């Protein structure tokens, strides 16, 4: 699984699905996307794992667009699409949960003289996410807070995602789905869009979790009248949030790397700040991937200005990731703006004010180690300038 922000994004299509997930979160804060989509960021249980929750609306196309926005804004560890669906197998009870082992985009096809021929397109659940979901099901702990005497079962199998509400067991489309996607356990309208967005973003793990609210056989109105939609949504939300917590805590971002024998190793971070005439040549712990070793940073006004511009970007990302609350972020932005004004006015003349602003900023972001380290390095450079 990817190593990134420690967020899991959860998307839903309907408000009742959104509310079912929202009830599982604490310390909610709004995080608007520049295009207007409003996400809420909250924490899960005692672990404090972070979830970004969004309402995508009905259909695969809106799901893909909102999923793309969520991925760009939060750089999540994984993404879940959560809600209700119609069950296609009689052995799947109302209220049961289906986790998609595969998502079919079933509306792709070729129309020929002898009928519509399926052109299958599908996305499989990533192996590690699948393993974690199965383990969570076996543990039996995910449904302990549900107000039901009979715990819902969890099924793993393909889900078909199209663009229509399926409410017939005998229609032409129902027969066509059984013919071409006979192993599908449930049918819904958004999973393919979310899966496609994940696939196009460096294979981000996407898991579709659905609670069964009807059997897609003409009984939908009756089942809705018996409040199976909110029941099924609560069951799906309970499993999905438990899964989100596991995905975060089991990701490389949280757990560190492991040795060949499976034992956990510490993530290694080295930091060395030089002041005055001292210089650091090269220091490294464990390196994965390419590295670039260059000269010591040039000590010029342009370099400091560039460092402050980069810091602004990282500060904003830390705020979006929930590492800085709104009040701290606003105060930090104010100090960063003061620092930028000092640089624009000329460091020799405004050196003292620049250092003060940077030190105040460092105090505000002290809990975000990366930002604090960068600020310490910038302050050292400014102090060494004449």
Description:
This protein is of the alpha/beta class and 386 residues long. The protein has two domains: 7-255, Nucleoside phosphorylase domain (Rossmann fold), CATH 3.40.50.1580; 301-384. It has twelve helices and twelve strands. It has helices at residues 15-22, 60-74, 127-139, 172-180, 191-200, 220-225, 228-249, 252-255, 301-320, 326-345, 347-364, 369-384; strands at 7-12, 25-32, 38-44, 49-55, 78-87, 97-105, 109-112, 115-118, 122-124, 154-161, 186-188, 206-214. It has a five-stranded mixed barrel with strand order 5-11-10-6-12, surrounded by five helices. The chain has a two-stranded antiparallel sheet with strand order 7-8. Helix 11 (347-364) runs antiparallel to helix 12 (369-384). It is elongated. The model is unreliable at 255-271, 273-279 and 285-298 (pLDDT under 50). This is Purine or other phosphorylase, family 1. InterPro entries: Nucleoside_phosphorylase_d, Nucleoside_phosphorylase_sf. It comes from Salinispora tropica (strain ATCC BAA-916 / DSM 44818 / JCM 13857 / NBRC 105044 / CNB-440). Residues 8-243 form the Nucleoside phosphorylase domain.
């Amino acid at each position: 699984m990817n190593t990134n922000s420690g967020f899991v994004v959860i998307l839903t299509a309907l408000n009742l699905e959104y509310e079912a997930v929202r009830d599982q979160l604490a310390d909610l804060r709004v995080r608007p996307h520049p295009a207007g989509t409003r996400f809420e960021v909250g924490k899960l249980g005692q672990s404090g794992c972070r979830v970004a929750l969004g309402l995508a609306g009905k259909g695969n196309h809106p799901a893909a667009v909102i999923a793309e926005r969520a991925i760009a804004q939060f750089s999540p560890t994984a993404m879940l699409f959560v809600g209700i669906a119609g069950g296609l197998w009689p052995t799947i009870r109302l209220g049961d949960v289906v986790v998609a082992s595969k998502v079919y985009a079933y509306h792709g096809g070729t129309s020929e003289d002898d009928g519509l021929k399926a052109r299958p397109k599908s996305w499989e659940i990533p192996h590690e996410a699948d393993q974690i979901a199965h383990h969570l099901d076996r543990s039996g702990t995910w449904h302990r807070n549900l107000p039901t005497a009979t715990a819902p079962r969890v099924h793993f199998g393909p889900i078909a995602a199209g663009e229509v509400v399926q409410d017939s067991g005998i229609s032409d489309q129902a027969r066509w789905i059984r013919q071409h996607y006979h192993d599908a356990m449930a049918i819904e309208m958004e999973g393919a869009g979310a899966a496609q967005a994940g696939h196009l973003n460096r294979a981000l793990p996407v898991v579709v979790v659905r609670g069964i609210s009807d059997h897609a056989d003409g009984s939908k109105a009756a089942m809705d009248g018996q409040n199976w939609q909110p029941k099924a949504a609560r069951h799906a939300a309970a499993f999905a949030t438990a899964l989100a917590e596991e995905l975060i805590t089991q990701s490389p971002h949280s757990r560190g790397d492991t040795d060949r024998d499976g034992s956990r190793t510490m993530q290694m971070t080295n930091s060395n700040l030089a002041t005055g005439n001292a210089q650091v040549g090269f220091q490294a712990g464990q390196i994965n991937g390419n590295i670039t070793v260059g000269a010591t940073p040039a000590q010029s006004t342009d370099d400091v200005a560039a460092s402050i511009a980069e810091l602004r970007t990282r500060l904003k990302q830390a705020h979006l990731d929930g590492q800085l609350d709104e009040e701290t972020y606003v105060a930090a932005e104010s100090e960063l703006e003061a620092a930028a004004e000092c640089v624009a006015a000329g460091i020799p003349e405004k050196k003292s004010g620049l250092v003060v602003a940077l030190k105040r900023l460092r105090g505000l972001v002290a809990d975000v180690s990366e930002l604090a380290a960068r600020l310490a390095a910038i302050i050292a450079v400014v102090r060494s300038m004449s």
